[in-house]
Amino acid sequence: MIPDISNTLTWLENNAFNLKNINRGIERETLRVEPNGNIAISKHPKDLGSALKNEWITTDFAESLLEFITPVDNRIEYMLSFLRDIHRYVCRVLDKELLWPLSMPCRIEDMNRIKLANYGKSNIGLMKTLYRKGLKTRYGAIMQTISGVHYNFSLPVSFWKEWANLQNLQNCKETISLGYLSLIRNYYRFGWIIPYLFGASPAICSSFLEHNNNIKLSFKINNKRTLWLPYATSLRLSDLGYNNKSQNILKMTFNSLEEYVNKLKIALKTPWKQFVEKGIKDKNGNRIQLNTNILQIENEFYSPIRPKCIARSGESYLDALMNNGIEYIEVRSLDINPFSAIGVNKTQVCFLDLFLIWCMISDISKISFEELYYITENWRVVTLEGRKPNQKINIRSHNKKYFLADIGKEIFHNLHRLAEILDKYEKYKKYQKICDELFLYFDNPELTYSARILNIIKQQGIIETGISLSRKYRDILCAESLQVIKETDLKIKAEKSILEQQNIENSDFISFESYLDNLV
């Protein structure tokens, strides 16, 4: 059922040193909310700088949807401390407002309270806001307020050089891209293990459903306006959350970089009937989306994992991928961890290290359209009822179902041996301890994040739970001192970002309409 990688693990044991300097980064989203649990309607705080140019603290879809971004680093503790420092600083700036600790949004009864993120009056700033207006037009604003954690991951160049020799490949750039594509395909195959272990969005506020009439799920409900599915792990990753049916026609398999880039380019140029019917402008002549294509821009492609690279000056993201190859991957299937003040913890990071390396060194076979169907179905089953007793899933396209727990345990047997390799230079054998801890989740689903938070939510209500946790974390974070960033550095970063935005706005010499025409 699971690829045999014993020979590769033996090779890794002799090359463990090349896994020492894994590069990582985290992007954490969180809603600003009022003390009563309603979404905040205030503007992005000036003390946090320009959302357009502050690379540590920005906004996502909405003005109230914050995003915290850590620099790339190879030290887990430093990365998490950096993220915590951002939280500490922001909590002090917000004063009475709170950071929502759940992936599914707070109480939003009035859609007019969701203000699109404002990036200023420059052409690039106006374009970013218009793109978000397009998302609202296409999918509705409520869906865009769902929050998550993104994990950026790359293996060191020294590893890839040795891997190229093992695979008899001469081109290191090609080796890296092929390796990351294998990782992505296996993440598609087995990545449902992430929502099973760490999914933390089994419930929603009834106000979410009031603005989403197409959902046909049999929710349980209590008198606290809380709805849930008994065995759900991550409603955020289900069809209730981020989804785009128009993208299904792409049938993305990640079998080659060229396929990925070409399919996205087609989606960027192909009109979609539903979006054409909405039009480019409203009846008053105001633009409501960038275009009527399947994708307005590349970022609109929703997937649990993405290949990434850094675009050079003048390069588009897709051109950069083709020119420079895949440089890192972005995992997008982590729910906000409600048991952490910063939305993610060390256990999750270490597990992702293990799992992503396992995905990279496992089966390199391509994904067929038939297998893609089973993959999609597995993710649907796990997100909606992954903790169901004796739950089964399909493996590959054999049309034979296996117990989810059995597959999970088999994966962990490989992960534990890999943990021993990664722990070779660790003092406390942290990877092995985490494997031992998480292995128990398959025999006892009540240990999973989704089961634990659901038990609390059913008693207190989702809004009451969110308010209680956000207050608790606000008090904890405000009482702590910053560890790796100075408060003056955060203030300087904010002030500098405001000046950079002003410079961009002052340097625009063409109209916004002309700017948009040049984007085509």
Automatic annotation (TrEMBL):
Domain Glutamate--cysteine ligase residue range list: 12-381
GO molecular function annotations of the record: ATP binding; glutamate-cysteine ligase activity; metal ion binding
EC number: 6.3.2.2
Pathway: Sulfur metabolism; glutathione biosynthesis; glutathione from L-cysteine and L-glutamate: step 1/2
Gene Ontology biological-process entries: glutathione biosynthetic process
Catalytic activity: L-cysteine + L-glutamate + ATP = gamma-L-glutamyl-L-cysteine + ADP + phosphate + H(+)
Gene3D superfamilies hit by this protein: 3.30.590.20
Gene Ontology CC terms, in alphabetical order: cytosol
Keywords, ordered alphabetically: ATP-binding, Glutathione biosynthesis, Ligase, Nucleotide-binding
NCBIfam families: glu_cys_ligase
Family from the record: Belongs to the glutamate--cysteine ligase type 1 family. Type 1 subfamily.
Protein name: Glutamate--cysteine ligase
Species in which this protein is naturally found: Candidatus Pantoea edessiphila
Protein encoded by which gene: gshA
